[in-house]
Predict the 3D structure of the following.
Amino acid sequence: MIDTLFAVLSVAALALLLRSALGLSRAADRDPSSEAGALTLALYGALLALLTLALFIALV
């Protein structure tokens, strides 16, 4: 059960980081608001990754 939770959180964090990387690569020719949205996704992904790491350290 705990392993599944870690896997789901890790996949979600990686998906957010991947979407932000794709958004930043496309934001070069767009307005600054699309770049800000990509950076917001990157921050959410990083926070989710840190939360996953903290849960892993606390529970294992």
